[in-house]
Specification:
With 506 residues, the chain is an alpha+beta fold. It contains 16 helices and nine strands.
Length: 506
């Protein structure tokens, strides 16, 4: 049974044409495009929180050790879910049991969308109460994965809730202990290779995180830029900065935390973004300068909204979009493709339009799911000035794990719809012309991976959505470390020496 009632737009062939062209590399972000906060458009209802999230100060550095523990815990939970499903399965059940790709990720997002978290709650692992109702979406996901009856799935979910509660409590205790003993300043080791960086803790070098040079340079520039902003704002208010912007060790700790956080939540398909070509078109024609759903790893503009201000604020995050209340401006909103999140996004955008006192414009990017309430509300909205559908074969996205992969682009699993929402003032300022729409479609076609990219994608077994081929294996295709290269040079030397000896003997 298909999960969604999807649209089926006819392909123009533009995606196939663009995929065969040589990909022209462009900068993965534009530091010159930056949304300017004003005192009349706070990002939160609380003045104190607004000052923190609006880059006037930065949260204290999270504990690298706790982030390491969090990664291990979420991996443990994913494995335990499979074991619980097998344990609850009846022996006579012969239906194939498939791995539930992104099942845990979807449930976590729905949980944090519905529950207001406190400082004691873990930002990644849910902490369900004993009397919490079973999530219907979680049950449906596991049912579609097959291998269990509905009754068995409900028992599995109950057992899984208990495991999550235990893991979340354990991490909370660890975090409090780290804060008291000041263990947040763990030493982070960064090793440069030819095509990547290894980022690891000195106390645990086995669990390393990867990032390519382009993204490393981007995050370093974002971090430095943000520290300069904090310094200038603090000076204006007669305060002093708490963290020097040129502290490389502090930057590496922050880098480790943000990499570990997004490695923990996985779901790289949910982290996919429009390509840099698309954002250039949006800014040039529609004045877009901020993404409502992004991360430091995939954002294109200098500031963005994201889910984790504790790890992301030092790289330009303004916090959650649902705590963001601009009264004017032009924004791009490409949320995780989860029905509940998309609906809450639409409701929040409608609220912003009702309170707008100036030009307000949103370009909303969602899949062609006709049964989805968010899709229906966007189609019927009085603020929707233009709807641009793009066929599945005619476009691609920037991979959510492009910061650690060789290939930057991935195919789209569905048709994608661009909804242009504007009030009258924004419509006059940023008219939707045929030229702009044509450039937008061409820029989306630039994201279609080349045949060689797609072949590598298929070979590695990476999935594009919940029904695709699999998940990221994290396998390194080519080792380029200093030790590896030294060993290769030694092997070549020995091989040449043997060849010379053989030729002399002959």
């Amino acid at each position: 049974m298909p999960r969604h009632n999807v649209t089926s737009e006819s392909s123009t062939g533009l995606g196939s044409k663009e995929s065969k062209k040589r990909k022209i590399k462009r900068p993965i972000w534009d530091p010159n495009v930056c949304y300017e906060l004003s005192s009349s458009s706070p990002t939160c209802t609380s003045d104190e929180e607004a000052i923190c999230i609006s880059t006037l100060s930065l949260p204290s550095s999270p504990s690298c050790g706790v982030e390491l523990l969090r990664m291990a815990s979420i991996d443990y939970l994913r494995k335990q879910l499979t074991k619980l499903r097998k344990r609850r399965r009846m022996k006579e059940e012969k239906k194939e049991m498939k791995y539930g790709v992104m099942v845990v990720e979807r449930w976590c997002m729905r949980y944090f969308l519905k529950h207001v978290c406190t400082e004691d709650d873990d930002p990644v692992i849910p902490n369900p109460s004993d009397d919490m109702e079973i999530d219907a979406g979680f049950v449906l996901d596991l049912m579609q994965a097959g291998g269990n009856t509905e009754e068995e799935v409900r028992l599995v979910v109950k057992d899984f809730y208990k495991l999550c509660k235990n893991e979340a409590s354990a991490i909370s205790k660890k975090a409090k202990a780290a804060e008291k003993t000041k263990k947040s300043l763990e030493r982070v080791i960064v090793v440069r290779h030819k095509h990547s960086y290894d980022v690891m803790l000195s106390k645990n070098k086995k669990k390393l995180l990867k990032i390519n040079p382009a993204h490393y340079d981007k995050l370093q520039a974002m971090y430095t830029r943000q520290q300069h902003r904090v310094l200038s704002k603090s000076t204006e208010r007669g305060k002093t900065a708490t963290v020097p912007f040129d502290d490389v060790e502090e930057f590496h700790r922050r880098l480790y935390c943000v990499l570990a956080r997004y490695h923990s939540i996985q779901g790289h398909g949910f982290q996919a973004a429009c390509t840099e070509h698309v954002f250039e078109v949006m800014h040039r024609h529609f004045g877009v300068n901020l993404e409502c759903f992004a991360s430091p790893l995939n954002s294109f503009y200098a500031l963005h909204c994201s889910s984790f201000p504790d790890t992301d604020a030092c790289f330009g995050s303004l916090g959650s979009f649902f705590n963001f209340y601009p009264q004017n401006g032009s924004f791009e909103a490409n949320p995780p493709f989860i029905s509940e999140i998309m609906l809450k996004m639409v409701l929040h955008i409608e609220l912003l339009f009702s309170n707008a006192n100036g030009r307000l414009s949103f370009i909303v990017v969602v899949p062609g799911w006709e049964e989805c309430e968010a899709f229906q509300r966007l189609s019927a909205s009085s603020f929707t000035q233009k709807v641009v559908p793009i066929a599945q074969a005619d476009h691609g996205f920037c991979d959510g794990a492009s910061h650690q992969r060789r290939d930057r682009y991935r195919i789209s699993p569905y048709d994608t719809f661009f909804f242009f929402l504007q009030n009258e003032k924004a419509e006059e300022k940023w008219p939707i012309t045929d030229t702009a729409i044509l450039e937008l479609k061409e820029s989306m076609a630039n994201g279609v991976p080349s045949p060689s990219m797609q072949a590598r994608h298929d070979k590695s077994g990476r999935g594009t959505d919940d029904v695709a081929r699999g998940v990221y294996k994290g396998k390194k295709s080519r080792a380029t470390g200093e030790g590896v290269m030294k060993r290769k040079r030694e092997e070549i030397r020995i091989k040449n020496q043997k060849r010379k000896c053989a030729s002399r003997a002959a």
